[in-house]
Amino acid sequence: MSTAPGDSAFLRIESVVKDFGEFRAVDQVSLDVARGEIFALLGSSGCGKSTLLRMLAGFESPTSGRIVLNGQDLAGLPPYRRPVNMMFQSYALFPHLTVWDNIAFGLRRDGLPKAEVEQRVEEMLRLTQLGKFGKRKPHQLSGGQQQRVALARSLAKKPQLLLLDEPLGALDKKLREQTQVELVNIIRSVGVTCVMVTHDQEEAMTMASRLAVMSEGRFLQVGGPADIYETPTTRFVADFIGNVNLMDGTITLDEPDRAEIGCPDVVHHIGHGITGYLGMPVTVAVRPEKIHLTRVPLDQAHNQVRGIVHAVSYFGSHTLYHLKLASGATLKVNVENEERLHSGNPVMGDEVWANWSPTAQVVLTQ
Ligand code: ATP
Fold this sequence. Notes:
- The protein is of the alpha+beta class and about 375 residues long.
- About 25% of the residues lie in helices and about 35% in strands.
- The protein contains eight helices and 20 strands.
- Strand 1 and strand 2 form a beta hairpin.
- The radius of gyration is 25 Å and the shape is elongated.
- This is Spermidine/putrescine import ATP-binding protein PotA.
């Protein structure tokens, strides 16, 4: 008999490897996903995220490792026998069937009694707010509506695990943002556990409660969106998620409660010790919105550097400044448009001073 999992390990991926011939597409990946959680696999093209999703669906088998869902080892189970449903980017709707019949398709194929098919389809139409579109064909719907039909069809069979492959890839930016919220609300209201794949970091951060950043078949970091953004553990993750300034230097002071890192343009004062050695090469990451600008240098400020404005991009809520530093490096600074400098906003060619607090920095040793 299978053992019941704790809620924190409803889906358990244990040391999963996938080789295609000599090529390792997924490399020793382990993960626990909690019941009801929305988890995102995030990474650029070719990192192995779809291969991992396809192994969860049963379209590929792991070369080694185990996938356990709700206490059941999925090894050897073909896709149609898994309590898993996958929604594809292309939606894969049947063009000749109505919305109603598209949603009913899998239920009828499974031989569910007519009354139950009707009840489930109606429930799904209500859930996805497609009630008035039941008689339409897919081509008579907008992209966002088609996407909801695909979701309704995926949820109709009440899977234990819902897999989303680039769920909003076919929608334009504005519709994507709106649909992200709708999709999460529907998934949450059903309570189904969900693993999604995306290369779009905003999508992963908005929709998922936790995510894994993948590169070359491996998980580089797993955590909540804020953890990954605020405390990336590698240079790759810091650079991949959001905008960042990465400054390379070496450790010049390392004490239990403070440290200094010498970089070409500035000495970084860090408010804690670092596990390293004097002279060790490290990278300091500072997000552009954590940097403040002044017209004159602040007295006794640490982490302060002079720059010349050489690009200004206005984004409505904030303005992104590119400062040229003495070494020739660029420092990106985001200033909220509400928070204007007393003497007016800097323009191209202005001299400014950038400063940030010791806690605004993350020291990366890899
Ligand atoms: P994308 O976002 O472009 O879909 P991905 O991160 O999902 O990328 P995968 O589709 O998982 O990447 O592919 C990971 C790697 O494995 C790629 O280098 C790909 O070429 C390779 N790969 C995938 N499927 C096969 C296959 N059937 N045979 C050989 N190599 C494969």
